[in-house]
Design brief:
8-stranded parallel β-sheet; 3-stranded mixed β-sheet; 14% strand; 29% helix; alpha/beta
């Protein structure tokens, strides 16, 4: 039997005035830092109350340890001080908006392959065979909202060497956990996320995800999709000043700027120009758009991954040319994603690729946050574990 939305957590949902609880991780990270003024400052705040802050953005909730885009994940993020929460927005076959990171990720983020809905998947489970990896693909656009509600969230992962569905679903990385996913996470519609975030005292940063189907889809155009997302905030009485609508598609951002100018004023262009061959954050001639060009289009917020904003001066982490030019053009900067790389002893992987040589341990995380906050001047940082950012922002007096 399905549990009514929020009912199972009604007694533990924090009120806006409840104290933030960051747990042991911030002090663990500080303990790993090299001695210096920043470490001393962060240690001086140990034991002080941590405030909820818009500088701390819950990336899919608290996805490092909770199934992403679930009630449980969002509540955990709010308890850690995230002042803004993210619902990535996709749509079902009956054109209802739901919170999923991608339209075609149900096979890795839910239990669909182990349910009666497995036959709806556009590509059913295929076991690993020799050098061929196990695979599947299941889309929200192939099931109705009623069917979507029967699913449970799990940690986003798949075992590519699996020969059974059970093993395929059991792929969570060792540095994450299934501890908070044992009973399955409660999935949400976009409208339900708005209601929950309001109850948590948090603001909103929905991301309109790129469809896995060709648009228009059964009469549903890209513009309809972009408009429907904004309409759900208007219907809920949420002021535009509390919403940072995001998209990797610049056309979506420009649509909001033109057709919903109040919401468009805070629309966030998720810049993925780094995927272009030859693109370099320190070589403006390689960029798809110059910063003043984006500003002229009406873009006020830009959000690249954190490595795009950083470079090395010898062994010192400093702002990249990209970061400097964005600030000079008057663009507000948001970045992603902290706490998504696992332990940093081996250089941090993709999210730290421009500064790998300076990343020797988890202690480097707060050095990165400090450069982003104090030198790049970012307006907020997405994190899979918001407590890390919340502690820093509260200690340094950031809003």
């Amino acid at each position: 039997m399905l549990k009514p939305i929020f009912l199972s957590l009604a007694l533990v949902t924090p009120a806006f005035s409840d104290p933030v609880t960051t747990g042991p991780r911030p002090l663990y990270l500080i303990d790993q830092m090299d001695p210096g003024p920043l470490k001393d400052k962060l240690l001086s705040c140990a034991g002080d109350p941590v405030k909820r802050t818009a500088f701390s953005i819950g990336h899919r909730g608290a996805a490092m340890q909770f199934p992403e885009h679930t009630v449980e994940s969002y509540i955990a993020a709010a308890q850690m001080g995230a002042g803004i929460l993210e619902c990535d927005v996709t749509f079902t076959s009956d054109k209802e908006l739901v919170c999923r990171h991608a339209q075609n990720d149900l096979h890795t983020t839910t239990n669909i392959l182990a349910t009666d809905l497995a036959p709806t998947c556009v590509a059913g489970f295929s076991p690993a065979d020799g050098e061929t990896k196990a695979s599947a693909e299941c889309r929200t656009s192939d099931i109705t909202l009623a069917q979507f509600r029967t699913l449970s969230g799990k940690m986003d992962a798949a075992n590519s060497s699996a020969t059974t569905v059970e093993d395929y679903m059991d792929g969570t990385a060792g540095w994450r956990t299934d501890l908070y996913a044992a009973d399955g996470g409660e999935l949400m519609t976009h409208a339900e996320s708005i209601a929950l975030f309001k109850s948590l005292g948090a603001k909103f940063t929905p991301e309109l995800k790129s469809p896995a189907v060709e648009m228009p889809h059964e009469g549903f155009t890209q513009e309809d999709y972009a408009q429907k997302m904004i309409d759900e905030y208007k219907s809920a009485g949420v002021p535009a000043s509390d919403v940072w609508a995001q998209s990797f598609n610049l056309d979506d951002v420009l649509y909001w700027i033109k057709n919903e100018p109040e919401f468009g004023a805070q629309a966030v262009y998720l810049d993925n120009s780094y995927s272009i061959d030859g693109w370099d954050p320190n070589t403006p001639a390689s960029w798809a758009h110059q910063m003043d060009e984006l500003k002229t289009m009406g873009v006020n917020y830009i959000a690249p991954p954190l490595w795009v904003l950083l470079t090395l001066d010898t062994d010192k982490i400093v702002p990249s040319t990209y970061a400097i030019k964005a600030r000079e053009a008057g663009l507000n900067i948001i970045t992603w994603t902290l706490e998504r790389s696992g332990p940093l002893q081996s250089g941090g992987g993709w999210y730290y690729r421009s500064i790998t040589e300076a990343i020797k341990s988890d202690g480097a995380m707060y050095e990165v946050v400090d450069v982003l906050a104090q030198e790049v001047g970012v307006a907020g940082i997405f994190s899979d574990w918001p407590a890390t950012v919340s502690y820093y922002a509260s200690c340094l007096g950031l809003d």
